[in-house]
Every structure is written in structure tokens, then in C-alpha cells.
Amino acid sequence: QSTWGRKFCCQQMQPIELHYAPTPNGWKMTIFFEETNIPYVIKPVNLAAGQQFSPSFTKISPNNRMPAIVDPNQRDEEGNNVTVFESGAIMVYLCTTYPQLAGQFFQEKKQSKVLEWLFWVNANLGPVAGQVSHFTYYAPSLDPKADHTYSRNRYRNELVRLIQVLERQLALTKDHMAGPYSIADMACWPWVKPYKRWFNDDFAQYPHVKKWYDNMSERPAVVKALQVMGKEAQIAQAMR
């Protein structure tokens, strides 16, 4: 198990345990940790082997989905290490628990806007993009006799609409989704990333999305975040 991220100035802080797989939902969190000084250690979750359904993981993440974290620096009301599941909840928890490290990405005067767009990603963009992935890659092999055209087109059309929503927002805010660079941008970028491959489109119709996406892609933290278990991600992609 490897510890990723920059060294924390306070040596007493133990690394946050990040239960992780190299998917868009996982990348949200590696981007977050690489953008902050919060130390973390990867706890791989083998989704193909069904580790997310194990009793030990279910205790951390009752919905059997990663990412999830264990914070050995904080205790809950029963005296156990704090656990948090759901990427948005994790980001807000870490920003508010360690504001000296991550507070800049969840600024008090911008919190309502950041939350709006963070929730938009987690309630709209992520689930829809996930369905595009399912009906493009998995459904045809799981049920090859079925016609998946309607389902695939329904979610592809909705994903296009959501990219148009993002384009309108970035036309107003210019560089980032909710004003300053924030956890909303970190959560959004991994789910915009596969759009280029699925549609064979470099955002030609969406200049503000393209500028935002390209700038995000060049951030050192984003580059490093995608390298976490990068080989495993390539293998999974090749198996589709």
C-alpha cells in the first residue's frame, strides 16, 4: 500500500485511508487529495472481484460503492475512527474538518454555489455518464440479444444536454464552475473526461467547456491523480 500526496507540515496527522478504484468517482478523490496537503493512503477496492460487497467494506460504505474514507485522526460518538462515504460528502467533510489545508476549495462566501454545482455533478452528470458507459460497454455483452438503442440514445442525449448546461455556466463564470477553483470542478472533470471518447468530439461546439477541460487536464494534481493505479485502469479499459 502506497502513500500518495504531498507531505503534511504537521507530522502528527495520520494519512486518510481512501478506499478507491481508478474510475471517475475514484479520480474525484485523488484529484482532491493531490490538490490539498492532506496525506492519504490508497486502500484498493477490486470492483471486478466484488470487494465492494464485503462485510468490512459495507461497514464503511453501506451503499457498497466507493470512494469511502476512514479518518484515523478523528473519532465518532462511539470512539471509532470517522468513516465517510459518497464523494461529495467526503469532500465537504475534509474541507470543513481541515480548513487550513482544504478550505480554499470550499470558501465560505462561495459555499452555496459550490454545493449547487457539486450536487449537480453527483445527482445529474455522474449518474447519466455512468449509464452511457453501461449501455455502451456492458449491456451489449450482458444481454447481446436485446436492443439497447433506446437506452443508449436516451442517456447520450441527456449527457449532451448536461454538457450544454455546463457550457452556459462556464460562459458566466469563465474559468471555474462556481467562481474560484473548487471541489465542484474536481468532482466534475472526471465525468466530462469520457465524453471526448464516447462522442469522438473535442468539445468543438462548447468553447468554454473546452477551455475549462484543457486547463484542468494540465493541472499537475490532476495529472498525478490519474496515475494512481493507472495500470489497473488501463487493463480495465482494454477489457471492455
Helices and strands in order:
Layout: E1 3-4, E2 16-20, H1 24-35, E3 40-44, H2 55-60, E4 68-75, E5 81-85, H3 87-97, H4 99-102, H5 111-142, H6 149-173, H7 183-199, H8 207-217, H9 220-226, H10 230-238
Parallel strand pairs: 2-3
Antiparallel strand pairs: 1-3, 2-4, 4-5
Helix pairs in contact: 1-7, 1-9, 5-6, 5-7, 6-8
Q: What about the largest sheet?
A: 5 strands, mixed
Based on CA atoms alone, the radius of gyration comes out at: 18 Å
State the shape.
globular
The strand count comes to 5
The fraction of residues in strands falls at 5-15%
Describe this structure in words.
The chain is α+β, with helices and mostly antiparallel strands and 240 residues long. It has ten helices and five strands, in the order E-E-H-E-H-E-E-H-H-H-H-H-H-H-H. A five-stranded mixed β-sheet has the order 1-3-2-4-5. The radius of gyration is 18 Å and the shape is globular. The two termini are 27 Å apart. 35% of the residues are buried. The N terminus is likely disordered.
